[in-house]
């Protein structure tokens, strides 16, 4: 009897501390959600844009929008708040802002008769379930953009929790005429399977593979296989994180379609990407 009592006492202690830490986690998530809502209201978020270039012609094929948070003392990178926003659900609201701002910028370039065929926007799993199809449709209409001017980048993790639902939503988006891109290819385990079952028009070769492709034959071969498969399936390939001329040359020799990376430009604020796009020949 004594042992049982000690045991249950121990369990009770354990339960109590678990529930206290669960409360602390929930409080922390609430604080984050409030800060993000306040940040949106005070217009503290900014979009930066990184150009994507065709490997054969060197022309701009699109730009990728990447969010930052301008706080009084510093520009906070997405790694510091996107995971929290995904956790507490405020990614849906933040994501709607990102989509609207990216489309507003695209509409501006269009009015100015500037060359930028496509805007790529990152979308999280939560947003897929948060009525994304309707949001995308309304946002494109608000800015008078064609669906083909928008590309939605999804990571594999966005598709994992409910693959059937994700697939249905992906097809609705594709039917709308928006193109889908599989981000961070090679980081997950079933990426090849994912390419087969989802309506992706583009696959993005992850930075990790690109950074090792000149030194590691495994990474080189993986990229070569992916590009060959993509070509057979009429899927466009974009290599990300290209930093060295040798990487770009190698990708070009393998028949990769496009690239982005510091070798061309880092993500740039709106005024600077606009200057970039105004250069002759882009
Ligand atoms: P990602 O979509 O894979 O974006 C590519 C990241 O690589 C960006 O980091 C970009 O700045 C960085 N990058 C670009 N060129 C180079 C290069 O040559 N070398 C290296 N080492 N890195 C390069 P960033 O902007 O910090 O974004 C990090 C991640 O945050 C993104 O990864 C994306 O998953 C997420 N993210 C950014 N903006 C959004 C957004 O609006 N919504 C959502 N849901 N996620 C976002
Ligand atoms: Ca991306
Ligand atoms: Ca990526
Ligand atoms: Ca990534």
From TrEMBL:
Domain EAL: 29-281
A single GO molecular function term of this UniProt record: cyclic-guanylate-specific phosphodiesterase activity
Name of the protein: GGDEF domain-containing protein
